[in-house]
Amino acid sequence: MANSASGDSVVDRVVRVMSAFPEGVTVLQLSDLAERAGLPLSSAHRLVRQLADHGVLDLGAGGSVRLGMRLWELVNRNSPTLVLRQAALPFMEDIQQVLNQNVNLAVLDGWEALFVERLSRRGSVANRARIAGRMPVHISSAGLALMANQPRELQIEYLGQFSDPSGKVTADVVRPLLAETAQEGFAQLAGVVDPDTWGIAVPVVDGKRRTVAALGVVVPLAEMRLQALVPALQTAARGIGRQLGEQISSFHSTEFV
């Protein structure tokens, strides 16, 4: 792959262009896009035109650049989380019907919880989790539920590199949280992201006993009912795990038909 004068490849530059769009922003001016991607305007313009030819970006009048429908199509058609989301949605909907509050589904990506689905209703409490949004493991109940059920080697690596941007939390604080989560079978964080909410999450385990996701809810502190919430979440998580196994088995049985 050809490199630029700065040494980065075409792939590097394409990724920088696609990553330049902030969360929730689908349109940028070409000049803003080039600046955010750290590229000369001419290089950004050339890449944008090439990506537009494939429908990944749309180049509009006045130098506006929009994320293209082709990108949405490719991501949703081939996403590794597609089977997980399909398996989880019916159970998430059941939980939401009962609680009338936010329900989310996350996977572990590096040292962050990546949220792949979220259900909410009008009147639900504030929930900072967004689909395709990320949170550091230690400030998310989903993140704690995920990390607490990973192999010990990965936990040691995570704690060894741990740093909190605010400087308020250390690895010595997170370590017992992970141990408690593993022992109890669920994670809970009260008022960490929002002072008026409580996050609870449980691991989703697949047929090979691997923790592949975390199912969580965000509820008002005043309505916290741990004894009722945790069993409901654990039952739903087991259902998701079974459904994952059935979908994967069905896929393999028809793969060569």
TrEMBL record:
InterPro entries noted in UniProt: GAF-like_dom_sf, HTH_MetabolicPath_Reg, Tscrpt_reg_IclR_C, Tscrpt_reg_IclR_N, WH-like_DNA-bd_sf, WH_DNA-bd_sf
UniProt source species: Pseudarthrobacter psychrotolerans
Name under which the protein is recorded: Helix-turn-helix domain-containing protein
GO MF annotations in UniProt: DNA binding; DNA-binding transcription factor activity
Sequence ranges assigned to domain HTH iclR-type in this UniProt record: 8-69
Keyword Acetylation (UniProt): no
Superkingdom field: Bacteria
Keyword tags: DNA-binding, Transcription, Transcription regulation
SMART domains tied to this protein: HTH_ICLR
PANTHER family given in the database record: HELIX-TURN-HELIX TRANSCRIPTIONAL REGULATOR, ICLR FAMILY, HTH-TYPE TRANSCRIPTIONAL REPRESSOR ALLR
Keyword Transcription: yes
